[in-house]
Amino acid sequence: MNTYICRYCRQPSDPDQATCPLCGAPVDVRSVVSDAGWVEQPPIRDMARLQFGQSHCQIAGTTVPVAEFNLSPNDWMYFSHHVLLWTDTQAQLSNMSMRGGWKRMMAGLPLIMVEARGPGHLALSDNHAGEVVALPLQHGQQMWVREHRFLCATGNISYDWTSTDVWYVTGQDRDDEETHYPMGQFGDVFTARDAPGLLLLHAPGNTFIRDLQPGQSLLIQPSSLLYRDVSVRLNLHLEYPRNRGFAFWSNRWSYRNIWVRLHGPGRVAVQSVYEPPEDTEVIRRHSHATTHHW
Amino acid sequence: MFRPVDMIQCRWCQAQNQPGTTSCMTCGAPLNEQDKVSDSGWREAPKLRDMTEFRFSSSVCQVEGELVPVAEVNLHPQDGLYFEHHVLLWKDESVPLSSLNTGGGMKRSIGGMPHIVTVANGPGRIAFSRDAPGELVVLPLHPGMELDVREHAFLVASHSIQYSFVRIKGLVNLLHGGNGMYMDRFVTASHPGVLMLHGNGNVLERTLRPGEKILVEPGGFLYKDSSVQMQAQQMPLKTGFMRHGMYLAEMTGPGRVGIQSMYVHHHSD
Questions:
Q1: CB–CB of B239 and A111 under 8 A?
Q2: pLDDT digits (tens, 9 = 90+) for A253-266
Q3: Where do the domains of chain B lie, and which CATH numbers do they carry?
Q4: By CA distance, what is A46's nearest residue in B?
Q5: Which residues contact residue B193 at a Cβ distance below 8 angstroms, ignoring those fewer than 6 apart?
Q6: Which residues, 6+ apart, have CB-to-CB distance to B14 below 8 Å?
Q7: Number of domains in chain A
Q8: Range of the structural domain that residue A283 is part of
Q9: Chain A residues with beta carbon closer than 8 angstroms to that of B44
Q10: Which tens digit of pLDDT belongs to each residue from A200-246?
């Protein structure tokens, strides 16, 4: 069989199919690349199939796509219970508990994942207009994903979570302090430990991918980051635009940009729907950050 | 010699259409596109093309837009429509509006449902839309049909369709069913009519055989034939910090079930 490397999932794929069987990306489309080098992730075509283990996943719909699974008897997967749309009565559902319950609850993350074992059919969807992004992970490959973007993973992908270490504290005095996590308090880390596996994300809006060279850096809106190779490092970046004729305080306090600075090498992906950080009050303390005053 | 004309049957609403037509004159579904059916048998509701027209009674409806579609109706003098007042996008000044009491006033208010629907009569133009990305689902109802619809999914219905509501029975269904206290019920007596729903995200439909069961997240439920039984079913799962039970809606055939892919999970913590 002829093979080619899918330009989206970077895995050897089958050129005779209309869509990549590993990630669902169309085979017969030209890459859409912006002048800055962002590659637009093509949406998975309606009814495209993805293969994993002895099972497969079919994507239905284009506005809020549904990932429908046909699980074979030996395969299993896990997901947050919020995303379960329907299941047949054959699929076996059970709880998969996780460490750090109190911290996860305080951070608004799901405390318990649901484990589904085949044989059976079930379907998952998120509640935003956007795209399902499929990331097949090779043995040993690791991926960092922003919180709440995880849709599901196959059983041979392990799940862990780490602090983002991107935060700042605002408030007029110590009694009034508030800690902000512009990209969430924790990030999800997925690793294909013993065998390849499939990781599905849901990205609101459109998705764009870019490869950062060693030493290359980039500023992005913190909540637009979808996933990154773990080789990509990040930190908080505070930018104060120069202004003319405005009051001194607006320059230093509320009139500012809060960014995340990404450092290559590695792959990063952003989503076009994001929530800008709140633009209020002076920053009293923050995590490791770079600062620029224009 | 007389040759019968090969009519085109719409696969969504089963209406017959003249040869050469590209969209169904009864529901607007494209006639020259393949059905999209998943391996499990869920069929996507037809994506109505921008500016598609279809007819009901003596009036014409045109669908505009694809992200949050608008249903624009040119009402014939003898025709009327009813709807919840907050879905009205615009209207000709001359189109008269009146109100229709649905009954069950206080109980409906407590259940968060409108106890008055607005009625518009022809002639004139009037347009409707809801406030989320999704799909317009056109369901022509033949005489004798009964359809149950989740609360606040109903966009507009023609005046020949009777509107009522059914109270969701059983404490477990009420507390854990995720569908509120009431479902809208639309019934056709002797005349056909058209019912339009707005489904959030994508809409999929499946026809269950007698006794066939499927478990659906209650927030994703959109509509069903009244012959389909709906029952809250506890799953062997615990969720959240308090480890409360997780419930899904068990649908038992025969009949159609429609679901929407964008929803607020009914027990989100």
A1: yes
A2: 556 889 999 999 99
A3: 8-260 (3.60.160.10)
A4: B36
A5: B56, B57, B140, B141, B157, B158, B159, B160, B161
A6: none
A7: 1
A8: 4-293
A9: 46, 60-61
A10: 999 999 999 999 999 999 999 999 999 999 999 999 999 887 766 55
Mean pLDDT of chain B: 88
Of A89, A110, A126, nearest to B215 by CB-CB distance is: A89
- Backbone φ, ψ for residue A142 (5° rounding): -130, 145
**CA–CA distance, A76 with A55 (Å, rounded to integer):** 9
- CATH number of the domain to which A52 belongs: 3.60.160.10
pLDDT tens readout for residues B214-225: 999 999 999 999
Contact yes or no for B268 and A82 at CB 8 A: yes
Query: Tokens at residue B232, please?
Result: 């809250």
Q: Which two tokens stand for residue B107?
A: 């109980």
Residue A251 has a pLDDT of 47
Residue A213 DSSP code: P
Which of A64, A112, A121 comes nearest B201 by C-beta? A64
Residue of B nearest to A114 (CA): B237
| Dihedral over alpha carbons B34, B39, B45, B48 (to 10 degrees) | -30
pLDDT in tens, A163-186: 999 999 988 777 888 999 999 999
- Does residue A32 have a pLDDT over 70? yes
Nearest-CA distance from B236 to chain A in Å? Answer: 6
pLDDT at residue number B222: 96
Contact B126, B95 (CB under 8 A): yes
Contact A87 B215 (CB under 8 A): yes
Give every CB contact of residue B89 below 8 A, 6+ residues apart in sequence.
B70, B127, B128, B129
